[in-house]
Design brief:
about 350 residues, alpha/beta, nine-stranded mixed β-sheet, three-stranded mixed β-sheet, 10 helices, 14 strands, about 30% helix, globular
Length: about 350
């Protein structure tokens, strides 16, 4: 059984890594999460050290997964104190990892990213659940081809539907199709809690949560109650979207949820007729933001007709692995999440 001392001893082998930056070590079976709090202005220059730390940790024979994440440094005096391993009791005891796919605003294609990441993980042999937590605008029933289906009930639990090797749950399965949902905060909070704890998720390697857009009460409810492993932030390249993405990222950091990476959606437009590339929203803004904030950049997704058409047909483009180059993009990003 690995201990914090084992991890610290291995990290001492990383050249130029200041031990004072290590503020948290969380060990779970054969995986470890190490948090380094660094000055935000130095995050980009410390990225090579972060990578070296992960490589050194993986040299430990009993360790199969190592994540070293950089977070913005809090105001402290003296040497930072390492927080002991304190795992919150899981509300989903059969689920190994819970990952939120989030954005600071709507309209950036977050649901498209979430469903295709989930499908890719399922195709890589993982046991996957997909929760549509967008109470006011559920889109996963359409995108998974389940819009006319209804979940079952057994033993006081909701039985999730299944699509493409995943278990899927959405408020859209429980309300009238196309009807507006006019709920106040208390009802939203209750619905989100029930879709977490009253659904028979069973045994899963990972539950992907398609978060509501923004940084309001619904997002905080999930961030605080779902015992998240981490969050993936989705943004488009332009400055106005990146401002909102930064707000979403900081919200997760305030509730101690690690940022697993940033994805740039609609990174460029590729004409389906002439294959000409046009950077209509700019390009590379999310990657630069990831470097500035010291978080991984998971990849870019173009604005392409086939991604939209497959989603509208309930056949996510990720299902066309080895047949469609855009499916390969999602497969690559899913691999970077390092789901054990």
């Amino acid at each position: 059984m690995l201990t914090q001392e084992d991890i610290l001893t291995q990290l001492e082998k990383v050249e130029d890594l200041d031990p004072a930056l290590i503020t948290s070590i969380r060990i779970k079976e054969t995986s470890v999460l190490v948090i380094l709090e660094v000055p935000s202005e130095h995050a980009a220059t410390l990225e090579p050290i972060r990578q070296q730390a992960e490589e050194k940790l993986l040299e430990l024979e009993s360790l199969k997964k190592a994540n070293v994440l950089l977070t913005a440094q809090k105001a402290v005096s003296g040497k930072a104190e390492i927080q002991p391993e304190q795992e919150k009791p899981s509300v989903l005891p059969g689920v190994k990892e819970v990952i939120a796919v989030a954005s600071g605003k709507g309209g950036v294609g977050k649901s498209t990213i979430a469903v295709n990441l989930a499908v890719s993980l399922a195709q890589q042999g993982k046991k996957v659940g997909l929760l549509d937590a967008d109470i006011y605008g559920p889109s996963l029933p359409l995108m998974t081809g389940l819009e006319n289906e209804r979940p079952g009930f057994a033993g006081g639990m909701i039985e999730p539907l299944e699509a493409y090797g995943m278990k899927v749950m959405s408020i859209g399965f429980l309300v009238d199709n196309g009807g507006p949902l006019v709920w106040r905060g208390a009802l939203v909070h209750k619905a989100l809690s029930q879709m977490l704890t009253d659904v028979n998720w069973g045994s899963l390697d990972v539950l992907i949560i398609d978060m509501p857009p923004g940084t309001g009460d619904a997002q905080l409810t999930l961030a605080q109650n779902a015992n998240l492993t981490g969050a993936v932030i989705v943004s488009t390249p332009q400055d106005i979207a990146l401002i909102d993405a930064r707000k979403g990222l900081e919200m997760f950091r305030k509730v101690d949820v690690p940022i697993l990476g940033i994805i740039e959606n609609m990174s460029y437009f590729e004409c389906p007729h002439c294959n000409k590339r046009s950077e209509i929203f700019g390009h590379g803004g999310a990657e630069e933001e990831a470097k500035t904030l010291g978080v991984p950049f998971l990849g870019s997704v173009p604005l392409h007709l086939s991604i939209r058409v497959t989603g509208d047909k309930g056949e996510p483009v990720a299902t066309q692995e080895n047949e469609n180059p855009y499916a390969d993009i999602f497969s690559d990003m899913a691999g970077k999440l390092k789901i054990s």
